[in-house]
Amino acid sequence: MTYSEPVLLKYFNNRKVIEVSCGAAHTTAIVRGCGDGADDYVNTNFSSEYGHLYGWGDDCFNQIGRHTYCKTEPDDQCVPLRLKPLREARFLHTSSGFYHNVALGFFTQKPNQKVVFSWGGGLLGNGTDIYDSTLLPVRTLLEKDVRLVSAGGLGGTSKEYKQNTGDATDNVPYHKIVTPVSLQFFEGTEVTSVACGIWHTSVVVLCHGRQKLFVFGNEQYEGYMRPYCPFYSENFARGTHSIRTVKRIIPDEVFLPDQSPIKKISAGASFTVALLENGKLFGFGQNPRVCPAAAVPESDDQEIHINSADGFANERHVYRLSTGHEESRDPFVDVDCGTNHVVGVTERGHVFAWGHCFDKITFDVDKPIKIMDGVSLVKKAACGLDFNVLY
Q1: CA–CA distance from 347 to each of 258, 271, 279, 363 (Å)?
Q2: How confident is the model at residue 267 (pLDDT cuts 50, 70, 90)?
Q3: Average pLDDT, stretch 19-24?
Q4: Which residue in 82, 212, 264, 342 has its CB near the most CB atoms, within 10 A?
Q5: How far, in Å, CA of 100 to CA of 25, rounded?
Q6: Is residue 152 helix, strand or coil?
Q7: Is the distance from CB of 116 to CB of 104 less than 8 angstroms?
Q8: Dihedral of the CA atoms 386, 221, 276, 15 (nearest 10)?
Q9: How confident is the model at residue 165 (pLDDT cuts 50, 70, 90)?
Q10: CA angle 228, 291, 285 (to 5 degrees)
């Protein structure tokens, strides 16, 4: 069933929704006050809010975690299902890729040790390429102080990439990275925000007290079946699957025309949107459905010429995503990117959308539509392939 207007999900009435993330056709959410009584409270040192994890939607790649492989059962999970690891846990953050999820949480028996969980279809960081419906810890990250998680678009194996893209990958060598690797370029910096798109990643870091925005991977727009990812063959010697540090990924630094600090970034198919502390939105990338013509800016001050970190000249256009209303009076407080569209929420609860929503709903990038008008309870947005959740 398709809805062109927001519909209330009553399952979480009178409960506090902490965070929501959407994949291609599924959703995960962290919720407090789920009827477990005193079990909701855990004495922990973490300042972030925590809660129980729920999932609903398409389960064709085990991304909902129903622990069922019966082919006679439908793939859809129509009502929210509580997702439980093998031991009792609480969750701080969740991020859904197309067919897999990553969540940051902790076991209640060890409430001060953060744990990264992964499940669904794709390379889950556990040393294999086997799909798994069980929320398992990523063991390589158990001793790391992980603060943020982000799941990218397609998380499949090399076999699936070839099935999905046909002959496009026949002469394209690449490697499966089955366990987490360290990106040496960012060592010595503090990562404050990260966003994984389909085939690229954007990162905001603090370096010597200065905030910087970087992007790496492939930003070329050819739909969401592009056979490239940030970990491409030029970064690895053939056959080196045990590598722990990636030395040759050199991101491009992106310069925004506004010096206000970056509050959040979000990424879609070949584009990134940055939300600034002053409530303004800026976008860049190669997606013509979000970036106007993905080429020609309206004025000279919107065209940003930068030098990439690897020494090659790189021309990048940064666009202001505006609604025509005065952001100083009603600034944006949240933004999220779908595959080919963007949804922004203002301080007064107005919700705007730009881009293209999978041939079902089309938003003009120059003239965004208002999805919702001044609902004070709406503070955040989460975008999937062709659907959105407001909370």
Answers
A1: 20, 24, 9, 21
A2: very high
A3: 95
A4: 342
A5: 11
A6: coil
A7: yes
A8: 20
A9: very low
A10: 35
What are the φ/ψ torsions at residue 112 (nearest 5 degrees)?
A: -110, 10
Tokens of 26: 């599924």
Walk me through the domains of the chain, giving residue ranges and CATH numbers.
16-152 (2.130.10.30), 157-311 (no CATH), 322-391 (no CATH)
What does the chain come to in residues? 391
Closest CA to 104 of 95, 334, 26, 29: 95
Give the span between the Cα atoms of 348 and 373, in whole angstroms: 9
Q: Name every residue whose Cβ is closer than 8 Å to that of residue 353 and which is 6 or more positions away in sequence.
A: 341, 342, 343, 344, 363, 368, 369, 371, 388
Single-letter amino acid code for the residue at 86: L
Helix residue ranges, H only, the chain: 158-165
d(CA 109, CA 216): 38
Q: What is the pLDDT of residues 103-154, one digit of tens each?
A: 999 999 898 899 999 999 878 888 887 888 899 999 999 988 899 999 987 6
Rounded to a whole number of angstroms, the CA Rg of the chain reads 20
**Tokens 């005065």 appear where?**
326
The identity of residue 48, as a single letter, is: S
At 160, which amino acid appears?
E
Give the tokens for residue 210: 């200065």
d(CA 223, CA 165): 11
Classify 96 as helix, strand or coil. Answer: strand
Taking a C-beta distance cutoff of 8 angstroms, is the pair 379, 345 a contact? yes
